[in-house]
Amino acid sequence: MAEAILVNGISEILKKIGSLAGREVSLMWGVKGELKKLQKTADMIQKVLQDAERRQRDTDAVKLWLQRLKQAAYDAEDILNEVAYETLRKKIENRFKNKVRNRFKNKLRRFVSASNPLVFRLKMAHRVQGVNQVFDDIAKEKKILNLKEEHAGADKPILDRGTFSLMDETEVFGREDEKSAVIEMLLDDSSTAREDTISVIAIVGFGGLGKTTLAQLVYNDQEVGKCFTFKEWVCVANDDSSGKTLLGEVFRHICDSEPRSLNKNEMGKKLEEKLKEKKLLLVFDDVWSCSQWDEVRVILKHGAHGSKVIVTTRKQEVANDMGAVHSLNLTDLSYDHCWALFKKRAFGRGGPNQTRNLESIGREIVKKCHGVPLAVKAMGSLMHSKVTFREWKDIETCEYLDVVGDNVVNVLRLSYNHLPSPVKQCFQYCAIFPKDATIMKADLIQQWMAHGFIQCSNDLEMDKVGNDYFKTLCCNSFFQNMKLDKNHDITSCKMHDLVHDLAQLIMGKELLVLSHITSTENVNLGETRHLTVRLDKEREFSFPEDLSKKLRTFISKRPVANDAWVNFKFIRVLHLNGIKEVLSSICKLILLRYLSIRSYSLTSLPQSISQLYHLETLNIVNCWQLKELHDDMGKLTNLKHLYIAKSTKILKFGRLHSLRSISPVLFLGEEEDGRGIGELECLNNLCGHLRIHNMERVRDASHVRKAKLMEKKKVYQLEMVWNEGAESAAKGTKTDYSEVVEALELPPNLIELSINGFAGVKLPLKEWLANGSSLRYLVEIKLQECKNLEEIPPIWHIQPSLETLEISSMDKVKHLGGKCTSTSALAAPRLKHLTLRHMRVLEEWVENSTTTPNSFPFLEELIVEECDIFEDCSVRLSCCQGNKIELRG
Questions:
Q1: How far apart, in whole angstroms, are the C-alpha atoms of residue 111 and residue 115?
Q2: pLDDT by residue (tens digit) across 607-628?
Q3: CA 282 to CA 7: how far, in whole Å?
Q4: What sequence ranges are listed for the domain Disease resistance N-terminal (predicted)?
Q5: What pTM, to 2 d.p., does this model score?
Q6: What fold is seen in the domain 176-329?
Q7: Are 201 and 215 spatial neighbours (Cβ–Cβ below 8 Å)?
Q8: Given this model, what pLDDT does residue 823 score?
Q9: Which superfamily does CATH assign the domain made up of 515-664 to?
């Protein structure tokens, strides 16, 4: 199967080669001719790929030709990226050049160094000539193999973001009888022997039948929940490559921490303390092996009598070895339920019309899925994007569409084949994650960007296009268990284990997972481009030189020696865990675009990290001992996403003009240190959520104006926090506070505004909101801990778009509301959620006399807590039709 899919990756690399060569050709005199030749050869070879894709199944020579082509394409891309780096390096270093007195010394050093432009051009010319020779040989073999040029058809369109509709993953068709049967087994305590406290119930069936879905239905049942005092879901998925153990996963989920250096006895004692005398309901999902079950069972016996374990597994012997007292063998889903599932997916909103012809073909497709829900789901999602009779018929007659036994991967492969070409690369890359891993959408898209998988000419649109790719995979059922934020945007997802199997199969030898080895000496590194290390114990590794020259992704769960990764010259994505030091030689990783470090002992980063000019994402949010980032970080002009710990200071961050996110929080320092709010001046690409803490350090209104918040048009959530003790820290008058906040001009497209800890007497809320057109999208306002604030205007009337208002811990607010000058704002037309907490001195709620009796016609939730003299609140809001009303003194 992998051979037939191989061509897609080659095609995308060749496209990038042509683009890179064309872009650099005007900049690299001395190499122009070779670059033009490479571009021309790559374009020519690409025209025969469709023919090669068909013939490789029958001809080993074509398959070998494709393999050589792919390796040559990777090498060419690496060289061209080196050229791009050198171009970028010169541009940045000219901008940040040294002082005049150092120029002569620097010129002399550059003349004798590898970074001398003349030396570099000679070196690159030689390497590009070598690549061209390889491509010439490949082009000659193409003729010998008689590969025919074909006009490539238009690629399948990426999902139209305007038509995206997320299916309800919680809706399940059928399985009511099976659910009732499992619940009956759970509640039957007669099956638990007196001398034992726990019994096992197994759900057995091959992949894709819905074992996990059935277990979830039971686990989430309200009546079942009432019968147990402790519930936990443990996904084991302990296949050969995961590096997981049953005991380790039970400990990780129940104790909510990593086992790290704990031995079995230590883990056992902690689990016993957690579970002692509790009636347990545990689900062990996707169990492949009974290894360590005896140790786990001994621990679980400390629970109360009647405790139960539900096990889902593909293997009946696992159920037997775990001593299951009941075993449910899951069978095919009925045809009627399969058709209902398919119909909802295929003909749902945005899909084709359910004509008689399409329904007839659809029913044939469902029959070929043979009652496997995962296959039905995948095919329904695929057909949703097909409109014509011919498209439906072509898929119905496809050789892959016939699920026999547990070969569901064939159907998933068919769905994969119909993905747009760039999305295919993005999907197969997901194989780097462990099975059942929670995949964070933003992080995944950033890694796709680091590898150049996202096709977009406008750099500012890259995140949007990546989001479209992600949605395309969601709509085609390659992702599941999506989590949404309050704005209904997807934040994370998982992959079904069979979908993960497909991604691994497509990746083939390019992905290597090390999980149970003590040395890399006997590991076949061959064509490895992506390496993940998932060992439970620390190992010291050294990697062969040929791997160091090829690797593009390195992800390590455990600490590895510095010299194991500093030679990964062409690495794009690098995850490091538990390291104590980052060597200055990290600057050699010139193509690195994504760097994530998790370390509780790392105290500094070398200044040389500022030479990683291609770096787009830097995630050091879990480096709590890292106190400061050097001001040379301003040279990272391509840095788009910066995640830092609360304790980490960053100097002169205003130079990072490409920044789109600073997370989780931007802590302000002194303006003169390059850490003030004025550093935001040129960061107009910031988007999403901007959290600004230490606002008490902003003492000059001119600094606020310099920040130009009104130009941050992509910031939709703004949180400003004045910390405790702000009055003494600011050493100013109340007027000073007013001048600072009055100088604030908020981002025009704000959706949410949060103000916490403001120590002044007055907030210019009226002024901010009076011009309705300037904040027309604002739907949520939170005001908290503003201890000196004395009055809150009727913002629920001034801001007609407001849906959520939370006011809490206002020690001096006596008056809520007041006269509203707007004649059109006599009611809060959209307010749905109103919360008032800890306002002990509140005396009155003032409304216009002309206000309608029900000022809050659409209020759904009202919470009033510790507002003692709020007797008139219940009267004022008595006509609230809310679903949830809480009035607590």
A1: 8
A2: 999 999 999 999 998 898 998 8
A3: 45
A4: 10-98
A5: 0.87
A6: Rossmann fold (3.40.50)
A7: no
A8: 44
A9: Ribonuclease Inhibitor (3.80.10.10)
